Each structure stands twice: as C-alpha cells, then as structure tokens.
Amino acid sequence: MFRIYRCKVNEVDPRVIEVAKYYDEWEKELTTQLGASIVGNLALPKLDPDGQHISYYTNFRGEVDLVTPKNLEHYRNQFEDGRDSLNVIMEFLDSDKELNDILLESQRKDLYDLINDSDIDFVINNKTVVSVACKATGYTESDYYYAKERMLHPEKDTESKAVPPVPPIPPKKGGCLLPFLLGLLGLLLLLALLALLWWYFLRPWPFSQDPFAKYVEPQTTAVVTEPVKEDPVPAVSESASEDDENAVPTDEEKQALEKEKEEELRKAKEAQELKAKEEAEAKAKAEAEQKAKAEAERKAKEEAEKKAKAEAERKALEAKNKIPKCKTLKEQGTMPQMAIAFDGSESMTIPYGSTSRLSAAKNAAVNLINATDKNVSIGLVEVNGCPAAKNRGFFSGSARNSLIASVNRIDPYRYDGKTPLVNGLNQLATMLDGVNAEAVGILISDGEDTCPFTGNMNLCNVAANIHRAKPKLTIHTILIGDSIDSAACIANITGGKVFKPRDAIQIQQFIKEAGAKLKKVCE
Q1: Do residue 149 and residue 52 come from a single domain?
Q2: Which residues contact 72 (CB under 8 A, 6 or more apart)?
Q3: Are 388 and 316 in the same domain?
Q4: What are the φ/ψ torsions at residue 275 (nearest 5 degrees)?
Q5: Which of 156, 191, 222 is the last residue of a domain?
Q6: Helix, coil or strand: residue 8
Q7: 174 found inside a domain
Q8: Which of 341, 320, 326 is nearest to 426 (CA)?
Q9: How far from 266 is each of 157, 254, 272, 276, 493, CA to CA, in Å?
C-alpha cells in the first residue's frame, strides 16, 4: 500500500476517525463487493499507530500531483474516468444491498458523505485520479470544490447570464358602451319571458280560492230529503225495571260468589307459583349444565396441555441427549464453533495466589482446548495493545498444538499493555457464525477497555448489537479481579454465564464449565 496523504486527527471530521478505525474491514468489504480496480480510485483513511494522525492509502504507485484550481482543467479526462469509479462506490453505499460485515452498517452513510464532500484529489502517473475521503483544510469551498463541481456538472453552474425581463405590454384604450347596453336589455327580456311561463305553467294549482269567483254569479241547487223510517223500540214496563233495580241477592248467592272469587284467586296463585318454580328449575338446570360443560372443557384443556408439555419435554430431552452425526453437521454447515478472547494486558501479570492471573488463565485455556471436540474449530483473539486487538485466526482439530503455542506466546510487554476490550469483542463476533450455526465465545479479562477511542463506549450496547445480528452466538465471561462488573452484561445479553473466579482452581473449573457444551458435539 502507498500512503498518498496524511493529516492530524484534530484537522478532520469526527466521522473520518470512526471510519479510520475500520480501515482493513472497509478495504476488504469494498474490494470483495466491487473489485480492486474500482476501489483503487478511492484513498481510505487509516489511524496511525501513534493515534494522532490519519493516513490515506492507495494501491497505485508513481509520480503524485496534487490537483488545484490551476491545473484542474488539465486533468479533465482523468477526472471523468475516475469519477465513474467513485460513482460506482457511492451507488453501492447508497443502495439497500447488505454488507458482508454487518458491523460496518452504522458507518455506511458517513463514508458516503465523506466521499461526496471530498475536495482533495491526486493524479498518479499523469493518468489515474485518486480521491481522498476527507474535507480539505488548504482550500475553501469557493475555489477548488466549486471549480470541480462546475467542470463535472456544467448544468449546475449558477453563474450563467440572467435573461432580461420582457417589458409589460400596456392595455389598449378605447371601446364602446352600446354592446353592453344591448346585452343588458336582452337579459331583461329573457327574465320577463321566464316569469310569464312560470305564472301559467308552474305556479301552485288549484288555488285555495278561485280568483275569478267574484266575476261569476252564484247558483243554488234544491235538495229534497225523504223521511227516515225508524225501527219501533220495545216498550219496557216500568214495574219490571223497578223490580230489577230493587232486587237484593240472598246470603247463599253471596257465599257462592265469594267462593267462586276465592277459587279463581287460588288457581291463579297456584299457576303463578308453578310457572315460577318451573322457570327456576329450568334456569338451575341450564346453569348446572353450563357449569358442568365448562368444567369438562377446562379439565380436557388442562389434560391436553399437560400431555403436550410432557411430549415437548420428552422430545426436547431426546434432542438434547441425541448426538448428531458429524457428517450431517458438516454437510449442513451447522458445525458449532468456539473462539476465545484472551486479555493479554499488563494488569494480567498481577499475582494470583502462588501464580499470576495470566499464567492461571493460560493453563485453564490450554485444558479447555485439549478437552474440546476435535471437530470444533477454535479461534483466538489476543486483547492486547491499542487501538485494536490481534486476531490470531481459526485452528482446526489437527492444529491444537499451534493454538496452544499461540496462547502461551501472549505477552503483555509485546505491545503497550492496554486493553482494547471493545475491539476484541467485535472481532470475536466477526469470527463466529452465530446465525446458521451455534457458536460459543469465551471472554477472559480482568478489567475494562483502556484505549483512548473506545474506553468510553458502553459494552452493554456493543453486546446488544452483536446479539441482534447473531442470535445463536453465546458469550461466557470469565471475569478476574475487581474492575469487572461493567463486562458482566455481555453474558447476560447474549445468553451466556458470568463467572467470577477467586483463585487459579476456580479459573480451571469455570473455563471448563463454559466450554462443556462443546466437549462432544457429534459422532
């Protein structure tokens, strides 16, 4: 790689710093997706080891010329060719196509904006234009940036001459009042005609009183009536009517009437009571039947749920105890994986009983490696030295001795002795599947992130992002020492366990328990 540009950290947009932390990941992502020939026209930022400078690298080598407003027109052809490659990169970043590395998704728009706003360009060997994803401090937007925009997009040039306005045409004077008066007279005649038509054809008819009645003489008609014959009314004897009115019922008649009324009241009361009794019995019977039905349904439901639960537990136990075939797991691509993130910072040299934290952790890790199924590949991430942890790669079952040697070579004094815990956790997640296949991560650490750019990041948020992206990844945490509570949420969020050993014996026990699931994965 050839460094083409370098600037201080405090001279760039904060987004440049975030992108620079993942230089290797972005270079790999863009090259895989678009090809090296396209990516070559873009210089990506990378954070220098001193943490104070940002360097921009390209694949091209040769004579370099900084593009300025003075030589911009000279390189027009080179710019048009290079712009096609940049447009391909920007269209990819602005599209919905998924990234291979999902951890880069949060920086996707930032990188797009940095490329779009870039105003630093170089020409290599007088033919290749390389754009730097950075806002320049040496030029102002009024010279180079807008000069380049006018050259590449002439249709957006705002300095074109203005078209002079067309002078207004004065209205013509003159005219005559006669046409207006003739139109008004015609309108009045039309209204009069409509009123006459309404009067003769549409007004309410007949009238409640004839308006022409006063002009007509009244006529009289003689009416002859015949006498009506009435039926004779039978004569009533005055003596008979007086006898009926003065008749008095006897005692027997009175008793008979009272008994008749009492009997009617008794029968009505009995009928009412019988009806009420029948209704009450019918209601009680319906309630009892409903209650019995509900009870039967409840018992049947409970019995069905109990049987379904027992069957599910039985199947789950069988599936749990059944060891799958290794050939099947390999063909399906679901062979479990494991990776160890090992804290190699200087604080791990603190005495730990008769040994040190580092030595006790190394011995426990070696025992775990030897006890794990040989079909399981094991990855190693050394969490040591800012700004990034060291990914030592995956080791197959036949390379266990090489993995053990890599663990034993962990040395706090090989780097600056600080703890890039956030970066190590992200690298651990990147190594493992966790989507299609089960994966186990084991974090061994004695403290918090001590790097300047990631020390203030929330480990719980990082773990939540990892769990959303890889739900089948379980991370166990072996937390040694006192400053460890902030990392406990990593296991809680991903479904793992939190272990806090107090001596070398407990470290052996807890690491063995964390990897017990992978002791035998297939047969």
Answers
A1: yes
A2: 79, 144, 147, 148, 151
A3: no
A4: -65, -45
A5: 156
A6: strand
A7: no
A8: 341
A9: 111, 18, 10, 15, 81
SS3 383: strand
19: tokens are 């992108």
Q: How far apart are CA 121 and CA 43, in angstroms?
A: 9
Same domain, 120 and 145: yes
Residue 217 belongs to a domain: no
Pair 308, 331 in one domain: no
Residue 135's domain comprises 2-156
User: Total domain count for the chain?
Assistant: 3
3-state DSSP of 431-455: HCCCCCCCEEEEEEECCCCCCCCCC
Locate 418 and state its tokens: 């600080």
Asked if residue 458 is part of any domain, the answer here is: yes
Q: How far is CA 185 from each of CA 125, 181, 190, 459, rounded to the nearest angstrom?
A: 91, 6, 9, 92
Residues 413 and 375 grouped into a single domain: yes
Q: Among residues of the chain, what percentage have pLDDT more than 70?
A: 81
DSSP alpha helix (H) spans, 345-478: 357-371, 400-408, 421-431, 459-469
DSSP SS3 for 357: helix
Find, among 206, 478, 269, the residue nearest to 363 by Cα: 478
Gyration radius of the chain over CA positions:
50
In a domain, 492, yes or no: yes
Give the predicted TM-score (pTM) of the model.
0.41
pLDDT tens digit sequence for 201-214: 776 655 545 554 55
My answer on whether 302 and 342 are in the same domain is no
Which strands make up the sheet holding 473-479, listed edge to edge? 390-395, 378-383, 337-343, 439-445, 473-479, 498-499
The CATH number of whichever domain residue 361 belongs to comes to 3.40.50.410
Decide if 432 contacts 439 (C-beta within 8 A): yes
**pLDDT tens profile 283-295:** 999 999 999 999 9
Residues 347 and 317 in one domain: no
> Tokens in use for 426?
């992200």
CA atoms of 400 and 389, how far apart (whole Å): 22
